[in-house]
Each structure stands twice: as structure tokens, then as C-alpha cells.
């Protein structure tokens, strides 16, 4: 019998993995949201495909967390797609948070009024969702 590494127990189990021409998407459900983690690089060759895949998960109308913390490169095309996704989520009233990372930071420093709902980690995004739900439950007379 061998001991199980506690880190292994905390790793999410991905229910969906897709290769997108230089990037990989790992999708898993948490209790409060769907998390889409994107690894590798996003450029003109794959930005449209990645955005289309992310849009598939917004159809469920559940909170969405886009995790870019493992992304190595984000080109302007990928950034434009991210801005468009954010605009669509806001217009539809869908909750979305974006976990920032080294690939996104230079772009948000240059484009200061980007409006992206950035967080530092998936746990932070989940906490914000939990807090919003608790506030909604406590508000008297809220209509669903």
C-alpha cells in the first residue's frame, strides 16, 4: 500500500479536453461553476477555435471561470476574442471571471480600460460566486 499524495487528491478531474492548434483546453465542473483552463499559446491560428469552444460552455448558463494562469502566450487575436466573449457574457447577464496570468498581464497593462473581470486564482473566483449567491439569497424580495 502506498500513500496518496494530497496534491493528487485536489487536482480536478477534467471532463473535457480539446487540442486547439498549439493550445489545450481542460474543462471541469466545480460545485459553483464550469472552469475552462487554457494552456499553451493563443494566436491568430487558434483564437477563433478556442472562443468557439468556450461559447459551447456558456450555453449551460452557469457561472464560467476562464483560467489563463497556465497560458504561455496570448496574441492580440486571442485578446480580442477574450474581449468579445466578455462583452457577450455581460450582455447576456452571465457570470464570468478570468484568472489572469503572465501571458495576459502585458496586454491589460497596455489596454487599461479593457473591462475584463480579472481574478488571481480559481479559488478566488469561486469565492466571489459563493459570496454573490449568498447575497442574493439574503436579499429580501428578490425575484429569480
UniProtKB/TrEMBL annotation:
InterPro entries to which the protein is assigned, alphabetical = STAS_dom (IPR002645), STAS_dom_sf (IPR036513)
Gene3D superfamilies referenced in this protein's UniProt entry, alphabetically: STAS domain
Q: Where is the STAS domain?
A: 35-136
Q: Which domain of life is it from?
A: Bacteria
Q: Which Pfam families match?
A: STAS (PF01740)
Return the protein name: STAS domain-containing protein
